[in-house]
Amino acid sequence: MDEKETMEGNSASSANISGLSVAEPTSEGVRPEPVFARSLKRQAQRLQREAHVCYFVFKHPRTRWYAKVVAVCVAAYLFSPIQLIPNYIPVIGVLDDLLVVFLGAWLLQRITPADVLTECRELANAADARRKEKIRSGTAVVASVAIATIWLLAAIAASALIAAYLYR
Length: 168
Description:
single chain; 168 residues; two-stranded antiparallel sheet
């Protein structure tokens, strides 16, 4: 086997390095998103959907009272300014919130009847689809660009004012 064949073999396997695979670049030159980032994005979307399912479980008339208490306690902990680990601590502050949501969703799945949970999942999926359609509207895109532009201009103006003050 010559050196060129060895190099081609290595380049074909370079997409999977230490268990983290990256999709091959497309012909348009657009850099693909790493698999790890896509996985995190999917996990965040799943977590958001589970939180929405918890809301629908709480609102469902056939949900038992103790399941509603669990849902309220999880939501109360997430929105409470008093927490075991404050959110301003960079990583750990968010991890405890994630742990509470995961444990709350797991417990709700265990104590909620299967038919109620299935119905609530369908409601959450339908609400997610409606939300995505609403976000794709032209007005939302224009408003997002306008807000980003205003923030950027405000940041540039503030930087200019600070620079002018410091160099006086």
